[in-house]
Design a protein that fits this description.
Layout (H helix, E strand, L loop, with lengths): L1 E9 L2 E7 L14 H15 L3 H7 L3 H4 L13 E7 L2 E8 L15 E9 L9 E6 L2 E5 L5 E3 L21 H11 L34 H11 L2 H5 L1
Antiparallel strand pairs: 1-2, 1-3, 3-4, 4-5, 5-6, 6-7, 7-8
Helix pairs in contact: 1-2, 1-4
Amino acid sequence: MITTLHIQNYRSIREMSLELEQLNIVFGPNGTGKSNIYKAIHLMHSAAQGQFSQALANEGGILKVFWAGKTRSDQLRRMNLAVETETYEYELQVGFVEKLPYPSQFQLDPVIKEESIWLSGQYRRPSSQLMKRKNQAVFLNNVHHEKVTHSGTLYENESVFGQLGEPHLYPEVSQMRESLRNWRFYQEFSVSIGSAMRAPQVGFRSPVLASDGANLAAAFQTIVEIGDELLLMR
């Protein structure tokens, strides 16, 4: 469960920290940033899936999503997304491409400047830090609780989560990644003629409803068989 969410320099949100409970309702006038909170959470989920650049491109690119208001000249141009769960705390800092010494059509790609994981409830100190990424250098705690350097090459426009495997070597990183991947988003279901919900499906036991609702019938039947059928029928 998400306990704290922090967003900085994302769309209309200059800086915001929210303490969350098991059920939360966000309300307010139009244009106050409600949907941007949802989108920011979805971006962290996309980072864990190895699809951060694609998700950002779908929103119009880094220039479209970056805070457009006034900033101090001495401030770094960083978009900061952070989440704390009951076990771990994760932070992603995104910036812009440095001036390249060669021609490139990807000057507006997002760049992961920093990425970190800490143990929750122990403050952000070196002893509680499980992963630290600065640009393309990554330092991690391995399964033996030793500080090691990742020797592979990282793409600067994607999260460590989409590029670092070996869960048996880095179990805490793997657990944080799976926690983010397991988030589900049900903002809207397409009901058009081409909707996945309308297409015939081969049903199988489905304890989790798909984000596009494709397994809706199977998910309902799963509740009937192994869940709370009476609550569903209400």
